[in-house]
Write a structure and sequence with these properties.
Elements: H1 2-7, H2 13-25, H3 29-41, H4 45-58, H5 83-90, E1 95-102, H6 107-117, H7 122-130, E2 134-140, H8 142-154, E3 157-161
Antiparallel strand pairs: 1-2, 1-3
Helix pairs in contact: 6-7
Amino acid sequence: MSSLISKIPSKSIARSLLCRALSTATESRTQKLERIASELLDLNKIERHDYAILLRYKLGMNRYGPAVSAPGLQSPSSAGGASAPAAAAKEKTAFDVKLEKFDTAAKLKVIKEIRAFTDLGLKEAKDLVEKTPAVVKKGVTKEEAEKIVEKLKAVGATVVLE
């Protein structure tokens, strides 16, 4: 490449552009990251905010759904189209336990059971039971959720997993 540069006249615009292109091509990864970081630090607050939104959008992390990918970039599992939502529903790992209703005679037992698997005090557990239907526990594993459901159903409550 240096032989190519030496053949171009020294005052030529092409030579300066080629030298600049070669210098950026040989720029190491850490130098490139340092340059990008310093350029980001030079941005004002509004520009940094806009940059953060643009970066999230480009990475597909926007709050309005996943980014639309090119047709050639689809993975084999997502190429099916309609099968993707069904696969996502099967892979659910976190569940919410929701108290739908309970037998009024068993209200105290339900409150005690709720206090047993939550960190709520007596008043908070009573308020939670009284405002049914309400989510009792959020983001638990399936095994733990099933144990909670069994205990609450044993004392006379109607519980669903969401």
